[in-house]
Amino acid sequence: MRVMGIDPGLTRCGIAVVSGPSAPIPGSIGSAKPGFIAADVLRTHPNKDLEFRLAEINTQLNRWVETYRPEVLVVERVFAQHNVSTVMATAQVAGLAMVAAASRGVPVAQHTPSEVKAAVTGYGDAPKEQIQHMVKRILGLAELPQPADAADALALAICHVWRQGSAVATDTAQQTSAQQRWAAAERAARRTGYRSGRGRLGKKPS
């Protein structure tokens, strides 16, 4: 599975691709080792008009999606800040990334900065330097990923790989529990002369 992470920004947009298990391994959160594929920062000049900067980012985003063909695209969830213009530009770039994915049928996921930091470092308020060091360690890189925007994009992708494994583990545990309850009820029904096929027990969990 290829996961593309996008740390949206108008002047610097972090973008990265990592590999993960083709199918998430139940209970594997933090243990499935992601593999590094690519990372970079898409840049636009702050002196250009907004529409041209967005057009440049859009072209670069689409080029990356076409080149690496991710199976899921992960975007950092945008939160309000004191600088409204910065938030708006960031949200616009995030929207471009989502459209690039949706137009090709690629699923989109979003994670908050604190979710990503907690997944990668174990601490929701970790500084950027710590994220860089942990990303380097997790992916087995020879040096720190630079700049920080590229490391943030890698961290997003890593977070999604691990959270997918956690989600599957939860679903599997719930399904197993339902199957166990049904089996116990069926045994009890047999002892009292009822059969599951008569609708007494309901539908058997799949």
From TrEMBL:
Lineage of the species this protein comes from: Bacteria, Bacillati, Actinomycetota, Actinomycetes, Actinomycetales
Family matches, as HAMAP family: RuvC (MF_00034)
Principal location listed in the UniProt entry: cytoplasm
Gene Ontology terms, MF aspect: crossover junction DNA endonuclease activity; DNA binding; magnesium ion binding
Known partners and oligomeric status: Homodimer which binds Holliday junction (HJ) DNA. The HJ becomes 2-fold symmetrical on binding to RuvC with unstacked arms; it has a different conformation from HJ DNA in complex with RuvA. In the full resolvosome a probable DNA-RuvA(4)-RuvB(12)-RuvC(2) complex forms which resolves the HJ.
Annotated region described as Disordered, given as residue ranges: 179-206
Similarity field: Belongs to the RuvC family.
Record field: compositional bias (Basic residues): 190-206
Residues that coordinate or bind Mg(2+) 1: 7, 149
SUPFAM superfamilies according to UniProt: Ribonuclease H-like (SSF53098)
A Pfam entry, by short name: RuvC
Name recorded for this polypeptide: Crossover junction endodeoxyribonuclease RuvC
Group of enzyme by EC: hydrolase
Keyword tags: Cytoplasm, DNA damage, DNA recombination, DNA repair, DNA-binding, Endonuclease, Hydrolase, Magnesium, Metal-binding, Nuclease
Active-site residues annotated for this sequence: 7, 76, 149
Annotated compartments: Cytoplasm
Listed InterPro entries: RNaseH-like_sf, RNaseH_sf, X-over_junc_endoDNase_Mg_BS, X-over_junc_endoDNase_RuvC
Protein function: The RuvA-RuvB-RuvC complex processes Holliday junction (HJ) DNA during genetic recombination and DNA repair. Endonuclease that resolves HJ intermediates. Cleaves cruciform DNA by making single-stranded nicks across the HJ at symmetrical positions within the homologous arms, yielding a 5'-phosphate and a 3'-hydroxyl group; requires a central core of homology in the junction. The consensus cleavage sequence is 5'-(A/T)TT(C/G)-3'. Cleavage occurs on the 3'-side of the TT dinucleotide at the point of strand exchange.
Binding-site positions, Mg(2+) 2: 76
PANTHER family: CROSSOVER JUNCTION ENDODEOXYRIBONUCLEASE RUVC
Record organism: Bowdeniella nasicola
Cofactor, how bound (note): Binds 2 Mg(2+) ion per subunit.
Domain of life: Bacteria
